[in-house]
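Board work, copied verbatim: HAT C-terminal dimerisation domain-containing protein
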Amino acid sequence: DRKTGYFKTTPPPFNSLWQSWRSIICQATIAMPKKGNVERHFRTVHGKYDTTFPPKSELRKKKVKELKSQLSGQQSFFTQQTSKAKAATKASFRVSHIIVKNKKSFQDGEMVKEAFVEAADSLFRDFKNKAEITSSIKALQLSRSTVTRRCEAMAEDLTQQLWKDIRDCQCFSLQLDESTDVSDTAQVCIFIRMVFTDITAKEELLTVLPMKEQTRGEDIFQSFKNFIEKTQLPVYKLVSITTDGAPAMVGRLNGVIAKCRQDDAFPDFLNYHCIIHQQALCAKMLNMKEIMNVATKIACSIRARSLQRRLFRAHLEKADCDHSELLLHTDVRWLSRGKFLQRFRELCPEIKEFFRVAGQAEYMQLNDGQWLLDLLQGKDKTVINMISSVNAFKRKMQHLSLKLQRHDLINFQNLASELEMQGMACLQLDSARYTEHIDNCLSEFDKRFQDFSLLEPVATFMCYPFREDAEVDSLASKIAKLFHLNSSGVEDEILTLQADIELKSRDHGQFWNLLTEVKYPNMRKCAASLTALFGSTYLCESSFSHMKIIKSKYRSTMTDEHLEVCLRLAITHMRKKCEHPCPMLSYLILSMMTTMSIVMRREGKIHR
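↓ predict structure ↓
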């Protein structure tokens, strides 16, 4: 170009590769593709080229053709090597993800590689390219440090995806819970449930906050506050926080919830006590402590000593029982109480026989008919995680109470079986003893789940908004109070919605997404907020189970950062990238290829 001095096309002695110009004679790079720069390089470095290979001569044409052919060979060689390196890196990421997803140690990568090599020796024995396959497997980077870096890179990518979703979502809710790992460090897990503009939800692990010292409410809040300030979490989108009932979480003055409400950075939000925890607390009102205490003592007396445990196993095997051992139970593992009691009841005859044969003192309760009847109620078997489940459970309890009053034991198979074994008729059962427990449990349910009384009619409306018997005034008032909306605007939108014939005919799966923002702004906000609510801290509870496996006694020195990395990769639902995005990668490859080209030319490894 006469005006700028730039070449519009690549001159013959140069090659345009990777957005830079290179001399095909010496592989040097030209900084700016201008005529003056090219001529200066040619005169300075290759001054004798015109003499040795005169312009427009056949010798020069042959030489240029030879140089171009040589360059193509170099490019093919480096492209192949780069392709193999990329494939090995991608495979390394995939294997690393499988390792951490299965909660294995980083150093297991070396074992996996060794297994690959041994398996390839047998699987590809008759393959012509066996050596090439084995070489590719050996090129896998699966050392402990490499697997660690791969997991850190994938976790960082997932974190970036998460924060993009947080920025894009319309609103979100949080659930918090705390547990102690094997090194006695308190770990506070925080999960987030995001709702987007199309009224779809996504749940992910937000963070894990290690508490090095005390775990008071103010300590957990301060750690949470520091995380918010560091990450710039958009707290104004917060709808609700779900926790367990620990004083550190729900204390009236110094609990985490109270501290959040006192902080001006937090909006007005809803707070719910985990439904599962409340159900467990209701179960304690049954006042059957003597049953659990005796059953736990008997199980521990058998399992606490190795000899006793082996003898009891042999006894069960000889008796051809369906179970080979008793279960253990502690109050901390309250969800397993029902399974523990059911197993104990099924093995009760074998337990009595074992104590008799062994000549040991029996627990007198094993021969107490009333104690055995109390044992068989199967408490804590219903896991409640939705409001509808709570209501259904209450209805079932009322129904069971009526059945007991009529001495109808069709729903109490274990109780009926024990009465038959004792030779008692159903009418001889003291049903008042058990109906009293059920009534107490129902009263406790009503007391503990009164937080949901305001939410229940709103949830009912959102499930089916076209009910003709709905009291619009009362419903609009409750929706406005819950989600801080204008009551009159909500009332108008409800009436408009219920009269919309077109919406009535639509599929309810994506119903609320069909409402336009202009016509139904309050209804869409209500639907999004309700969708964002957590009903329990189940995700936190399940993550603690994963945490116990990841940070076991064999990996007790694992750092808090690596614990979060492993936990995030083990439980995430987001899509992971296998290649680590590196903006410097292309420049590194380009520099490496140039250096290798010069070295190989000097050593004569690239033939003309």
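DSSP finds 26 helices and eight strands in the chain.
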